[in-house]
Amino acid sequence: PPVTTRPSFPAAGGPPPDAAVLAREVRAGYGRGRSAVQVLRGVSFDAPPASITAIVGANGEGKTTLFRIVGGFHRADAGSVRVGGLSPATFRMRHGLGILPEGQRFPPGWTVEELLRRTVDLAGVSDPAAELERAVAVARFDTTTLRRPAVRCSKGNQQRLRFAMALVGRPRVVLLDEPFAGLDPPSRAAMRAEIAETAAGGAAVLMASHDLNEVSRLADAVFILRGGVVTPASDMSAEELEALITGEHT
User: Fold this and answer.
1) Which phi and psi angles does 155 have, rounded to 5°?
2) Model's pTM, two decimal places?
3) For the segment 35-81, what is each residue's pLDDT rounded down to a tens digit?
4) Spatial distance between the Cα atoms of 64 and 2, rounded to a whole number of angstroms
5) How far is CA 86 from CA 14, 72, 165, 203, 206, in A?
């Protein structure tokens, strides 16, 4: 069966040097007529290379919809999104994206090592053995964990596996949906370091997270998604971000 976590598929020659994500007045909704729900009502932001851009907000505000549009899996009703100067779907097909989806399930029966090997094979990297070794190092898995079926791993190990798979092929655009979900403190610290290193290596990292402490600690730019639009909220503490999200900010 195919790997359910979407790996990156880098093309020969690699992506363009400027892999910025540019969103302008993005609108999107679901349903028709009286049942129509407008989720995004004009979202605009930049996620430049070599940086971490965070989108935060309450459940149901449209973060996952926005990420699906940026990833090229859902079309916006209006507005535009460009990734590396291309449409999201074109960039993904030509150059690949690193995607960590929230709660993505693994196919039964596949071990952690088999999933990592499959992801490396699909990515078409020049040195599969070295890339597999790097993926294992990113996930910080020991031999016992590598041989365990992924569906029988702890939530934390499953999340670390998703992250390692997302980074295979060193994608220049990385989308992380709740990357810290289910992680214990050591794994959280390791994830934080890897995200920072990924951005330092030149990638445009776009992250959605309810963990406002990690957001305020990691992100170079923060946008609050509320009521279908985004508001810049950089250089704020976790408490200040929470007050804005909940509407308690004075």
Assistant:
1) -60, -40
2) 0.89
3) 788 899 999 999 999 999 999 999 989 999 999 999 999 999 999 99
4) 23
5) 14, 11, 24, 16, 17
